[in-house]
Amino acid sequence: MSQIDRLNPYLQGPVRIRAPKMALLARDFEPPLAEGEGELEIVSERELRYRMTGLPADLKHSLHALNRERNEPYEPLNRFRLVMTGADGIEWMGGWTTPYIDADGDQWVLKGTVQSLSAVVQGPASGEGGAEARFLIPRDHSASIIFRRFVRSDDGKGGLQATRMIEALGVPVRFAFDNETNVLSISAGSSTDLPAHNAENWFGEPLRILFGQLVFPRLVERRFPDGRSMLWVRHSPAWTADSTWTALWNGDDRFTNDGDFFALYAGLLTLIARDAGWESHTITTFYEEVIQSAQGSRWVMALTLASSIEGLARRLVPEGTLRTDADQAAIDSLVAHIEEWQGASRLRDAAL
What we know:
two-stranded antiparallel sheet; 16 strands; 30% helix
């Protein structure tokens, strides 16, 4: 059992995590905004909501911190951070939040939402690091059929198992598909070219391009050689039929050509990893913009598509790149002819 399996109960909501200890932290080295107890509810794949009952550790400072956030709402460091300890002793971090506060009673009631939930757990040391990301695949989307058919391999006993191994950047990448929960898992060991702290996010980028959907992992694990694991429950955006036309993986053989599918995935993952960025790759970002524009007007869609095509063209042919078939001698002759022209200098300079 891997550590990420601990998060399986939180795949879909509604689920509640009771927290005997909960706090909202202000800036580093400052007293907490408030401390108490409460619960976090995983309402759905796209909403994590908390409710805390408690009191400020330092009333004067808490009021100052609240006013600071209200007066400078665009300063991200003025927000607060949710931390809590579950009934099972696991310490969770909820990330940044701006709470709604009801201070009329004997205790403060603080409510709000967070973007993700994370924890650090300890397991046996393995000597190797790695990353795993698990994705919720809608049952009514063609991707569900594709993964049911493609993620298969010989189990060594004459049967089949729902796993598939491919190679990217010299690293084995493992796919697994759970038919019961419709969850796709992608994992790999950590390497120089595919470091775990990047790979956990890179795994989803080729899927966004291939399916034309905002495919982000629901559950994430980053493993360290000493046995520690960082775990996340993250937002999983809804898939929409509006953006199906943006999918790169399309055609009459899209349900049967597993070889080309995984070759294309490996190629995209290699491209993304070689640029080694924290944010989405430039090409992935273009796809994300077009995917989101598909839910808008045709005017918005056309403008976004045009700007993305221009961006791809500039990436393929950077500004200043000379054509390999250009006749440089003819170009130099034309430039010399224009320079010798005695007409209006404004027109001559514009031509040059």
